[in-house]
Every structure is written in C-alpha cells, then in structure tokens.
Amino acid sequence: MAGRGAIFSLFFRAPFVCRITLVFFATLLCAFPFGALAQEQREDEIIANLAGGRAIVHVAKDAIIFAAIDQPVERNSIPPRVMDLDATHIGILFGAAEWRIPADPKPIRLDRNFQRVSRADSRYQMPGEGETDLETIGVAFLEKLRPLIGQLHHRIDFSPEDPIFQIVIIGYAPNEYGPEVWVVEYHMEQSQVATRGDYWQTRIQRPRFTQVYPPEKHAPRTIVESRYPSNAKGPTLAELIQGHDPNITHLGSGDPRFAKVLDNIRGGQAQKAAPIDSADFMRAVLPLIAGNSTFVLGTMDERRGFEWMVPPEEPVEKAREDKNRPPDAPTLRRAPKP
To answer: What domain range is 141 assigned to?
Structure first.
C-alpha cells in the first residue's frame, strides 16, 4: 500500500482528488467559494448541520496527542465530535455529522449508538475482498448515512469529489503495526427522475480512505493535520513550526522541554519526542493557533486508551465491541516497517 497521500476507494479502488466540502440547506459563509444548495427549504425537509474545523495529531514516543479545533462553516454549525470507535481508535467527525427533521426536535447524531458491524452480517461483504477492521468502521457509518442522504430530493449543486461527511480515525493498528491516522471521506451522487419533474435521487457512495500516518519509509515524521473544508485558509501547525513562527518559537525559548519537542518535529523525528512534554507543548500551543475558537485535546496510549487534557462539553460514548471479529482478520494496512 502506498503511504502518505495515497487514497483508496473501497468500492472503486481508484485514486481521487480531495476538494472542499458541502453544506446542506444552510447559510453559506465566505469560506465556501461556490454557491451550493441555494434552495428553499420545505417544512418537512431533512437538514444537515455541519461540523467544520481542524484535526491535529502529534505521534510522540509511546503516545498520540490529538486535538480538534472548532471552526464553524455556517450559521448552524456544530463542533467536531470525538467518539470512541474501539479499544484502540477514536474518531473525529466533520461535515454532516448531525441531521434534523423539523418535525422532530431531537437531532440524529452519527456519533451516537455506534456499534461495530459483525463479520457475519452479509450486508457488509464485498465480493472478492476480505473485510477489514477499517472497512467495518467505514461501512457502519455508511449504513447510518444511507437513509439520511436518501431523503434529499432537490438538485444540489456540488462536485462529486466534495465529501459530505468525513472521519479522522486515530489510534493503534493491531499486530504491532503501531500508530496510524486515516481520513475517511463520504461522497454522494444524484440522478434526476425524469417522470417526476424536479425530483432527484441522492445516493451515498462507499467511503474512501487516505492514510496520513505513518508516512513512507525514510519520510520525515511530523505533526499531521486534516481540515474540513479542505480549502480552509491558513498555515498548518507543522508549517508554523517549520517556519519558526515567533509565538511558537517563544514557547521553546521559555521551556527547554518544549525546545526539545520542537527540535524533534523540525528534524522529522516527532515520534521520538517525550510524550508528557509533547502533550504539554500541544496544550500550550493550541490557544495560540485556535484564537477564540474552542478546542479539545486528548492523549492516547496503546495500553490505556485515550484520556482528556481538554475535554469536550459532553461525554464521549463508548463503542460496543464486535466480539465476532477474529484477531487475524485481513487489513488495509501495509506491513510494519522495522
């Protein structure tokens, strides 16, 4: 499997180009350079509330430090939601993570009641391919999205390459593979029903996976970042560090522990940074890059799972484990490197 930047569709197994995202039946802000969904909402029309922002991941020595910054994309935006996926993975949800039907005051949230799909369920089998743990997670969200997306019957002005929903999966792969970060994107397609006038069928496609960590062998290991929408302006944290941003450099000059973390990151050896020092550094740097935006910050250990340093305002639900999955099930991951 290719490394950083390689993208796969579980359905088509073909490369694609990641663009920007989409807003459903909501007021667009200037961050979106196209006029998508300029339609009037009907009283019974389903509405998607979007989560926008940044996911930042620092893989340090024996620990992963992750953060999510809330950067609203429209008036009714929700914050990025962090959820437990299994014993060694968490997910940060962006895009259409919450849906509302005007007649029902309770929203439909994709981060609630998550359960990994059993391998014995024939609905999730793909001919000629072995089911993987990542595919299991991806298809579980696909099944949550399918009935919601299917209720969209107006023409929506968007590119098929614009994801409507996105998960950043962070954690540890099995069989001593080590830390990993994946971006999972969901796209939709529409077709007009000619016999019914201005009536459209909307379908969700199978998820597309991009592995952003670990990088290829001998490539520098640094902080990785994913944004939603992907065209959000401004430098990444890694770019600020490499560019010797004065505010971040000041953190290093004021604390020798932070200076060492910065040296590791700039040297392409972020994975060698001390975990406690890296976590404290991230806690110090996030207010500088988040500004007035809210953020969450957590750490993950392969043995103890994840813990909060800056928790969300609401608790995170635990995923119900699939006890039927064998430990030697096939995987998308490439073989571990020495």
So the answer is: 7-233+291-310
